[in-house]
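#structure-requests
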Amino acid sequence: MSDHKTHFGFSTVDEDEKAGKVAEVFHSVAKNYDIMNDVMSGGLHRVWKHFTINTARLKKGDKVLDIAGGTGDLSRGWAKRVGKEGEVWLTDINSSMLMVGRDRLLNEGMILPVSLADAEKLPFPDNYFNLVSVAFGLRNMTHKDAALKEMYRVLKPGGTLLVLEFSKVYKPLEGVYDLYSFKLLPIMGKLIAKDADSYQYLAESIRMHPDQETLKQMMLDAGFDSVDYHNMSAGIVALHKGVKF
């Protein structure tokens, strides 16, 4: 038992319990993850990821690390951007998610290096990647500050971190968004994925995630020299960009 507590959705748990609880959620949802993403976001998650891929400054031959890459949506986009001479690593801490992503990319004829990796202890050298991305994964990490420092470490000078994550929705929409998240989402999780509890956690984890300005400051505290963000869909998600000089 740890003396340190952290959030698991709205619950408080020992820090050393969180990773296991998060793992259970993603082992449970892996097979239905893409279907649920489409249902939950009305297909918007594809638009958000498309924007993220197209906003990155990348050239042929660049090296990219996709953290919490799950089912491979960003890795696919990065691989197309950097070409055969580039290097794209698909990583996730969850083996079920990673296998779904790897198998899907293989089925599309895309062979990428894959690693079961903890974002808080990345198995890569300093100053290696031109770009690091994490989409809808940062909020599940126990020590976000440690993970952000690791992302900074593995980036080359001049490299960029892109964090796509649910954020703080514009105030007039809060009531409707809460109704959707806490009433409808678990029902959809039960109907489609036969798993209401996991989707209850996912909704709660969104609310516990830092807002736009807080995350910007966390990235600056982790060492990034320049950080800005772009709100999408009225702040339901935000894309943060940190640059290492």
